[in-house]
Amino acid sequence: MDPEVSLLLICPPGGLPEEQVRVELSPAHDRRPLPGGDEAISAIWESRLQTQPWLFDAPKFRLHSAVLEPTGSAGPLLHLRLGLTSYRDFLGTNWSNSAACLQQQGAADWGDKQAYLADPLGVGAALATSDGFLVFLHRSRQVAEAPGLVDVPGGHPEPQALCPGNSPSHKDFLGELVVHELFSSILQEICDEVNLPVLTLSQPLLLGIARNQTSAGRASAEFFVRCSLTSEQVRKYYLSGGPEAHESTGIIFVETQRVQRLQETEMWAELCPSAKGAVFLYNLVQGSST
To answer: What is the SS3 assignment for 40?
Structure first.
């Protein structure tokens, strides 16, 4: 493995479709209030706004835990326990200088080192072209997370896509709609970041969940998505721009056979933790069948 990433969940071979994932959204799965009060989070947010006034807060889904039942009636079933959090709380906990102390305190107080952390759930994709390449993006140096590094297409499922507004309540969400947002959000991120038509993309298969240890264990659900276009066709779409073209400065194609040994190459040091998690899960769950 790699010290920057750990695997929280590895799905069965091939991955899981949307129909085999369930969500329980509950206040019980939210972040615990900080021992000294959440004023520290407010202070960090205000400080960041002074230097980066373009930042904006938004609701996010928080991953509490994931449980895989290997023998459901329709095959394996994955149960995700989610709460609600925000980008502001993410900066004030996972990204704060006290994140390691918060993890120690969470383990002592609650038996859960993530208890005091926002842990917003991200999504990422191992995107395969029709001629046998995986797609990577060279991130802009202007983005807030992993500037200048190489990533897979990805982002976040958005509570606001299901319930507009900045203060959603847990009761506003149906579990099956949250699952659908989780799976559809990765397709939307691919369309926005790589500029691909959605009709060229397969239905996503969940490979598993990785934790980014450089942001105190923040989790990302990693998917496998096939594209019906060749790598050259994908490159042309990418170069013609898209809604989130500003987030990256270049596109990289790696042959699927090489992905199995990517950790042994110089490119590995350029990958951000979320991309490393996607590669690990792709190799374990999907790589042998691609």
So the answer is: helix
**How many whole angstroms separate alpha carbon 205 and alpha carbon 95?**
29
CA distance 275 to 281: 10
How far is residue 8's CA from residue 21's CA, in Å, rounded to a whole number? 16
- CB contact at 8 A, 276 and 5: yes
Q: How many CA atoms lie within 13 A of 95 on its CB side?
A: 15
Quick check: pTM over 0.90?
yes
Half-sphere exposure of 102 toward its Cβ, with a 13 Å CA cutoff?
Answer: 29
Let me know: does 216 contact 94? Beta carbons within 8 Å: yes
Specify the 3-state DSSP secondary structure of 231.
Answer: helix
Q: What is the residue-level pLDDT of the chain in tens, covering all 290 positions?
A: 899 999 999 999 999 999 999 999 999 999 999 998 999 999 999 999 998 888 889 999 999 999 999 876 678 999 999 999 999 999 999 999 999 999 999 999 999 999 999 999 999 999 999 999 999 999 987 776 777 999 999 999 999 999 887 788 999 899 999 999 999 999 999 999 999 999 999 999 999 999 999 999 999 999 999 999 999 999 999 999 888 888 899 999 999 999 999 999 999 999 999 999 999 999 999 865 55
Strands (E), the chain: 5-10, 21-25, 59-72, 75-86, 122-128, 133-139, 150-151, 154-155, 205-212, 218-226, 248-255
Measured from the Cβ of residue 270, the count of other Cβ atoms closer than 10 Å reads: 16
